[in-house]
Write a structure and sequence with these properties.
The chain has 431 residues and is an alpha+beta fold. It contains 9 helices and 27 strands. It has a 5-stranded mixed beta sheet. It has a 4-stranded antiparallel beta sheet with strand order 14-24-20-22, covered by helices on one side.
Length: 431
């Protein structure tokens, strides 16, 4: 498309928006919390799907507002995270305050906040570069206020924002449909695995009761065993000092919890070891290790994966167990598949302990006492082979969908950049 024929000025943010910083009322004063004043944090922005923010996880009281130094911004103001991470943006649908992790940008006048919402999305990589700090990166008030923004006249701002509202909504709807397809594929995978490891592959096999309410009937020639009777050992790792970047070739890396995801092992999810005393490799991973997260949120604790090959440079952290099973009794892949089923997670949820609703743990004793179905070894092998074959198909389809989502998001980003920087013809922006 041909470039815009209208004039773009550049204006510093300080001339368009009043910049307000946030604060946090004292957490020890109950009277400051659970009131009716919206209090935005980077967490709220990170969980937001869409442009507008109309609710917050936590709210403060009038007393908290008066005694903490927080400032109020009216609806239609912008909110921008200054750290963890920098540059998450939304438009307020309600009057709100914010934590010290955010800025509130209050419109000073002839400005369409939607245009500048899109502009800040376009500028996010630049805002991240402006971050400073030794412990964590943070965007300063002065740096933000000095940022130059494209500034077409108000009518052009309005037309561009209308166009982007229409086009990004269309793209977002396509992305949502594709993400729904991914969720359905994952549900189908889970259902296939669950049936295979609790009912077997033969639909006509005679079933027997297990006496376990959470499990029900199993094939008559199968057994139920506690993990402690089919395992050689169960260990946990340590907590070495690690960087925030993955290990490079030849470097030692410490696994992150995200390396374990519903039966899948993601070796790239690790952090480079900063210091080594030469003994860490005692905690390195071997082929057929079964990894179990011992601490996480209630939905993710005791997630499981098996290690498909030796990993001498990957180390076990404190929050992950390593289970080695008896090869003569059970396949590690079979144990992994069983423990990710909804039925198995019933006994996991029963055992998870924690004072915090956001973090719970399972003990070694819990893990060793969990019960699993145990077909004959040859039947386990057939079950695992069929699951892997189905997973290859699921993974192929999923990867195609993921790539199409990535391309849609790239298109969305490029469209926003082109629109706010004057690279599109306004005449073609009929929403």
């Amino acid at each position: 498309m041909s470039p815009q024929e209208y004039h773009y000025d550049n204006r510093r943010l300080r001339f368009l928006f009043e910049t307000k910083s946030g604060a946090t009322p004292k957490s020890t004063v109950d009277e400051y919390w659970d009131g009716g004043i919206y209090w935005v944090t980077p967490e709220d922005l990170g969980k937001l799907c869409g442009t507008y923010l109309s609710d917050t996880r936590r709210k403060i009281s009038e007393e908290g507002y008066r005694n903490s130094g927080v400032e109020m911004a009216p609806a239609a103001s912008l909110v921008l995270s200054k750290r963890a991470p920098i540059g998450q943006t939304a438009i307020l649908k309600v009057d709100a305050t914010c934590s010290q992790g955010c800025f509130l940008l209050v419109n000073k006048g002839n400005v369409d906040e939607r245009f500048f919402y899109y502009t800040l999305l376009h500028l996010r990589p630049y805002l991240e570069i402006l971050g400073r700090g030794s412990t964590f990166m943070e965007l300063s008030t002065e740096d933000l206020r000095s940022v130059c923004l494209p500034y077409p006249d108000h009518g052009a701002q309005h037309r561009i924002a209308d166009y982007l509202d229409h086009e990004t909504a269309r793209i977002d709807a396509l992305v949502a449909e594709k993400e729904k397809m991914l969720a359905l594929l994952e549900e189908k995978r889970t259902a296939l695995i669950s049936r295979a490891v609790t009912r077997g592959l033969d639909p006509d096999v005679y079933m027997k009761p297990t006496g376990l309410d959470w499990l029900g009937d199993i094939p008559e020639h199968w057994f139920i065993r506690r993990i402690k009777f089919i395992s050689d050992f169960l260990d946990q790792g340590s907590s070495p000092v690690a960087a925030n970047t993955p290990a490079g070739p030849g470097e030692l890396g410490v696994l992150k919890l995200s390396a374990i995801s519903k039966g899948r092992f993601r070796r790239e999810e690790n952090k480079a070891l900063k210091e080594s005393d030469g003994t860490e490799q005692l905690l390195s991973l071997r082929k057929d290790d079964v990894l179990i997260t011992r601490g996480n949120t209630p939905d993710l604790v005791a997630d499981v994966a098996f290690v498909p090959s030796d990993e001498p440079n990957l180390l076990l952290p404190d929050l992950i167990y390593k289970l080695r099973v008896c090869a003569s009794d059970v396949l590690p892949e079979y144990v992994t598949y069983f423990l990710i089923t909804p039925l198995a997670r019933l006994q996991i949820r029963r055992d998870a302990r924690g004072s915090s609703g956001s973090m719970v743990k399972v003990s070694q004793g819990h893990v060793l006492n969990w019960q699993i179905t145990l077909p004959p070894l040859q039947e386990q092998d057939r079950i695992v082979s069929q699951i892997k074959q189905a997973e290859d198909t699921f993974n192929f389809i999923s990867q195609e969908i993921i790539e199409s989502v990535y391309k849609l998001k790239e298109r969305r980003s490029a469209l926003i950049t082109a629109a706010v920087t004057g690279q599109l013809n306004l005449k073609g922006m009929a929403a």
